Amino acid sequence: MIKYFWIDLVLLCVLLFLFLMHEVQREEALGFDTYITELFSVGENTFSLTFFKSITYLGKSKFIGFGSILCVLYLWIMKKDYWNMAVFSIGIAGGDVLNGWIKNHVKRVRPENHLMENAGFSFPSGHAMWALFSSVL
Question: What contacts 137, CB < 8 A, 6 or more positions away?
Fold first, then answer.
């Protein structure tokens, strides 16, 4: 039973994601959104603003691409691990394609009180998708 616990956990997470996607598509503000917005509201020229802008930068395609290239080079040159190199590359590329597809399917606009100007839709979070695929790989 414990052997297959991770399958149950993955299925539970997928169901939770589908539920959240359904709620977001209803285009109503979720209570969680309101709570997080109030909790992390930051003023101009504060440490919090600088911190959140830095986190946003870490999720940019250029940063992720550079980090991915470094990981692939490490797996290729240092470890000679071609299987994990292929899995990592396909996972990162596939995660990006999946994220774009879901964003274009849900079409949730970004909130008006955002810290930085970003193009595209807001759900699901690109940062969360990168974190998910990086941790799985």
Answer: 84, 87, 88, 91, 92
